[in-house]
Amino acid sequence: MTQQQQQPDHHHRGQPHLPRAVDFARAETEKRASLNTWFSGVASRTSTIVGSAWMFIAAIAIIVAWGVTGPMFHYSDTWQLIINTGTTIVTFLMVFLIQNTQNRDAKAIHLKLNELIHAVSQAHDELIDVEKLSDEELKTLEGYYEKVRKECERRRKKLEEKAA
C-alpha cells in the first residue's frame, strides 16, 4: 500500500476529494522557490541553533572572554567598541529572525484553527481568517462572544437551579 493510500481522505461537508493541504502547499512552493522560501528555511534552522542551550553558553563565554581581556587592552574605547558593535549587529539581525519565526508560527496556528473550524460542522465558517479583520471588527466580534458567554452562563445557572 502506498503512502497516498494510507492517508485518510479529507472530505469536508460533502466537498469533493481534495489533496492534503500540506502536500499541496509543498508542491506549489517547490514550483516557485523564492527568496522568501530560502529565508524561511534559513530562519527556521538559525532559530533552532540560536535558541539552543549551547548557543547561550557560547554567548556567555564570549562576554566572559571580552571582560577578561579588558585589563589587557586597558579598557580602551576600541575594546568597548568591539562588544557594542558586535551586540548591535547581532541584535539587528535577530529582530528579523525573531519576527520571521513569530510570523510563521502565528500563520501556522491560524491555519490549524481554520482547519478545525472547517472540520467541525457546528462551527461558524465565517471565522476562518478572522485574524484579517480590522481591530474595530475584532473588538465587535469579541463583544458578540462575550454576549454568547454570558448567555451560556445564564443557562448553566438556570439548569443548576432546576437541579437543586
Task: Summarize this structure as a short list of keywords or feature phrases.
2 domains; single chain; mainly alpha
Structure report:
- With 164 residues, the chain is mostly helical.
- The protein has 2 domains: 17-126, no CATH class; 133-164.
- Helix content is 73%, strand content 0%.
- The chain is built from 6 helices and no strands.
- Helix 3 (35-50) packs across helix 5.
- It is elongated, with a radius of gyration of 26 Å.
Describe the secondary structure blueprint for this structure.
Blueprint: H1 3-6, H2 21-31, H3 35-50, H4 53-68, H5 77-119, H6 135-163
Helix pairs in contact: 3-5
Which structural class is indicated by helix and strand composition? mainly alpha
Strand content: under 5%
**Element-level helix/strand string:** HHHHHH
* Terminal CA distance: 58 Å
Counted beta strands: 0
Number of helices: 6
